[in-house]
Specification:
alpha+beta; six-stranded mixed sheet; globular
Length: about 290
């Protein structure tokens, strides 16, 4: 999935669709970006925009979608273009989707995600097992993807520690003692997985859609190579998916023993990020995990 960078939406529309930008309708696009449905000579496309200086949001998103597409296991929308525009700012232009849900939607979703997690990752993290070729974003926060040979070391150094540093003002001396103990003894709680997996990285129920073929398509990745359990834990953080999703996943890629004891520790990363982005309503959940 090679994506060219353009200097305007009109340039991208003309080169890719031999068209000019037609009507633009505002659509839901999350907390960070503005989003539009735009018509290009009758063809609808989805366009996300942000300030020009935030082009890297879309560059890294496109790279994450390309990594997922490269596994040939689960679909993502096709990315047409990224760039900057004097009117709209930085933009990402993608395939528009409004499909109807296929039969066995969640079973197929779980199976395809498991296949993605079992796909080879060697080309994604040269010379190491975990991380990614570059940093990206988890929401509006920069996500560090420094390559490492150990999953436990990666999760400590590139996931928990940076978020704890950003959130330091929320914690008292008792909390800090518990945080130090947790980080120093992380190998008592997390296993090294048998193999590394490409992760979506932010897989809650707002980050998939029904594709034009009726299957689940992944969107808005915070992609990196890690332990597959971290993706599954995230699916459970804000309500979870139907049981058939997890049953189908486990048929292809069974979760490791005692996963239930670890999932909150994986989700501590996301709760810390929400604490840093949105404030104190997440503090009690963070402290509960730290002290337990």
């Amino acid at each position: 999935m090679s994506v060219k960078t353009y200097f305007s939406l009109d340039q991208a529309a003309e080169e890719l669709f031999s068209s000019k930008i037609g009507t633009a309708f505002t659509v839901p696009g999350g907390d960070i970006n503005r989003a539009f449905r735009m018509e290009l000579d009758g063809t609808p496309v989805f366009v996300k925009t942000n300030r020009k200086e935030n082009l890297s949001f879309f560059e890294t998103e496109a790279a994450g979608l390309a990594a997922i597409a490269g596994t040939r296991t689960i679909r993502v929308p096709e990315v047409f273009a990224i760039g900057t525009d004097d009117r709209y700012g930085a933009f990402l232009m993608m395939e528009w989707s409004e499909g109807r849900r296929e039969k066995d939607f969640f079973r197929n979703f779980g199976r395809n995600l498991a296949l993605m997690h079992k796909a080879d990752t060697q080309s994604l993290v040269p010379d190491e097992r975990y991380g990614f070729s570059h940093d990206n974003f988890i929401g509006a926060s920069r996500q560090i993807n420094r390559p490492a040979d150990s999953w436990i070391a990666f999760f400590r150094d590139s996931r928990l520690e940076p978020q704890f540093r950003m959130a330091s003002s929320w914690f008292d001396s008792r909390d800090r003692k518990a945080i130090t103990s947790l980080l120093d003894h992380l190998d008592d709680y997390l296993p090294e997985p048998e193999f590394p997996s490409l992760l979506h990285g932010d897989l809650w129920n707002g980050n998939y859609l029904i594709g034009n073929d009726g299957s689940a398509w992944l969107i808005d990745p915070a992609a990196y190579v890690g332990c597959f359990e971290a993706d599954i834990a995230m699916t459970e953080l804000f309500g979870g998916f139907p049981r058939e999703f997890y049953d189908a996943y486990n048929e292809v890629n069974p979760l490791m023993p005692e996963y239930e004891d670890r999932k909150d520790l994986y989700n501590l990363y996301h709760l810390l990020n929400h604490l840093n982005l949105f404030g104190g309503s997440y503090l009690s959940s963070v402290k509960g995990i730290i002290h337990r």
